[in-house]
Write a structure and sequence with these properties.
Bound molecules: flavin-adenine dinucleotide, iron/sulfur cluster
Number of domains: 3
CATH class of the largest domain: Alpha Beta
Strand order of the largest sheet: 3-2-1-4-15
Number of helices: 20
Strand content: 15-25%
CATH topology of the largest domain: FAD/NAD(P)-binding domain
Structural class: alpha/beta
Length: about 475
């Protein structure tokens, strides 16, 4: 019988689905957690205290109705729980996998704050929606009205673009999505590795959108293969959801030696191999960590994905070099723990001084690094790292992966639209809601916020769709009036 008693947190401990042993999971790209048995998911959901003011919901960017779906899950009413979970989210099973819950819903959970350990909300969300897919409860995408006289072009098929595509198609618009990659999904497909998000989970979402009538133009780079102006002429509205892709440079000598590579090139190659693609730069060894001593520079989630990918490729040794300490790194604490379990070494408070190797331009052989210490707080309130006098050392390395984050590309130049306003960081400047400075053009996701999270891209896309829908309805009413 399902457990219908809530508030079980006083007697039942926090629990996650069991992780596969580190030695096993470090050999493949499958997700690291086992499937939860329904009784275990229900028992965990029943720990929720059904707060009058649910801080979990407040701190979820999608404002998901978490207490309701937890109660339904605890009562074994899984289909209803799934329906509540999917009412506010276009891909809840993906958020359940990749959201840094410790910084969002679970971090704010009241029972976490009272020292009992949060309800493991993300794991329950994943369980519910995976179950829905298996049971055939995920309905096809069917438009609620016929607005096919109007169309929206979406540039970018990442979580922002896919969310907007689904919601606009549901409203009945013709929706066409343009992406420069050969597969849709953006960083869900080619950035985040399979051990965090198995690719069939993404592909079944995309297949559902295609079956719902959304047209994908893949391998089509806007600005190169088709001008933005052509899209603006072809569609009644255009949404820019292009993400941020310009890798931040590591400005030290030797940064362009063979064997020093960008994180996203490395991760895209690894993900493509997972799809079985031929990838020349991997197949000839340049982007393959097998047998090599790998140093990853950076402390964010991208760096964590690189170190854990290198372990799975059979690297001889993997070290993460980060200039702050463990407590001040931007990456998720859970990801660091997973990486350590899998055999990654962390070199905290260290920054690269040079990538050294044979001659001036030969392959990298070692990283010369500077020991750091934390000084006074900078403008953002974080303690700024500063060099520890005399503290230099070297690390052997024949593959160095630069994972210092991403900035936007020069979109006004790429799109040939100098009137597209951008901020001083290069992100798109919104002029009203999600409207850009170009009439009929909207923007959402990382290209507006800067490198952020999947769930924020989805939230912004959802909000942008409300405005696009409103504007298109007004335009349609205007043309009806004109015709009368
Ligand atoms: P993207 O996902 O970047 O999608 C943009 C799409 O636009 C891409 O498909 C791109 O090909 C396309 N595009 C760009 N320019 C053009 C053009 N000119 N013409 C046509 N198409 C174009 N977030 C989490 O929440 N959890 C995680 O675990 C996590 N891990 C991450 C790991 C890595 C390695 C990276 C890099 C990021 C990670 N993130 C994670 C961040 C998250 O992936 C992004 O915040 C999110 O994908 C942003 O969504 P988006 O739709 O704005 O952009
Ligand atoms: Fe938590 Fe993310 Fe799900 Fe919101 S979408 S409930 S933040 S896992
Ligand atoms: Fe339940 Fe925690 Fe949300 Fe309260 S904050 S409703 S205990 S999940």
């Amino acid at each position: 019988m399902p457990d219908t008693r809530m508030l079980a947190f006083t007697t039942r401990a926090q629990a996650f689905p069991a992780k596969r042993p580190a030695a096993l999971r470090a050999r493949d790209f499958r997700e690291i957690a086992e499937r939860w048995a329904p009784a275990d998911a229900g028992a965990q959901a029943a720990r929720c205290s059904q707060c009058g003011v649910p801080f979990c919901q407040v701190h979820c960017p999608l404002q998901n109705n978490i207490p309701d779906w937890l109660m339904l899950a605890a009562e074994g009413r899984l289909r209803e729980a799934y329906e509540v979970a999917s009412a506010t989210s276009t891909m809840p099973e993906i958020c359940g996998r990749v959201c840094p819950q410790d910084r969002l819903c679970e971090g704010a959970c009241v029972i976490e704050q009272s020292g009992h350990g949060s309800v493991t909300i993300g794991a329950v969300e994943k369980f519910l929606v995976d179950t829905a897919w298996e049971e055939g409860w995920v309905e096809p995408l069917v438009p609620v009205a016929d607005r096919s006289g109007q169309s929206v072009g979406i540039v970018g098929a990442g979580p922002a673009g896919l969310t907007a595509a689904e919601l606009l198609r549901r409203e009945g618009y013709r929706v066409e999505v343009y992406d420069r990659h050969d597969r849709a999904g953006g960083l869900l497909t080619y950035g985040i590795p399979g051990f965090k998000l198995e690719k069939p989970v993404v592909m079944r979402r995309i297949a559902r959108l295609e079956a719902g009538g959304i047209c994908f133009h893949l391998g089509c780079e806007v600005g190169r293969d088709i001008p933005l102006a052509a899209l603006r002429a072809r569609h009644d509205a255009v949404l820019l959801a292009t993400g941020v892709y310009r890798a931040r440079a590591v400005e030290v000598p030797g940064a362009d030696r063979p064997g020093v590579v960008n994180a996203l090139d490395y991760l895209i190659a690894a993900n493509r191999k997972g799809f079985g693609d031929a990838v020349p730069a991997f197949d000839d060894g340049r982007l393959d960590a097998r047998g090599r001593r790998v140093v990853v520079v950076g402390g964010g989630d991208t760096a964590m994905d690189c170190v854990r990918t290198a372990i799975r490729q059979g690297a001889a040794a993997v070290t993460c070099l980060y200039r702050r300490d463990r407590a001040n790194m931007p990456g998720s604490a859970r990801e660091v723990l997973h990486a350590e379990e899998e055999g990654v070494a962390f070199c905290w408070l260290a920054a690269p001084l040079a990538f050294e190797g044979e001659g001036k331009a030969g392959p990298v052989r070692e990283v010369r690094a500077q020991r750091m210490r934390l000084g006074t707080a900078d403008a953002s309130g974080r303690r700024a790292p500063e060099p520890e006098p005399g503290g230099t050392f070297t690390l052997p390395a024949d593959l160095v992966i630069k994972a210092l984050g991403f900035d936007p590309e020069d979109l006004p130049a790429l799109f040939g639209e100098p009137a597209l306003a951008v901020t001083r960081w290069g992100t798109i400047r919104l002029v009203e809601g999600f409207r850009t400075s170009l009439p009929g053009v909207y923007a959402a996701g990382d290209i507006v916020r800067g490198a952020s999270l999947v769930v924020w891209a989805m939230r912004e896309a959802r909000d942008a769709v409300v405005q696009i829908h409103h504007d298109l309805l007004s335009a349609a009413r205007g043309s009806l009036k004109d015709a009368a």
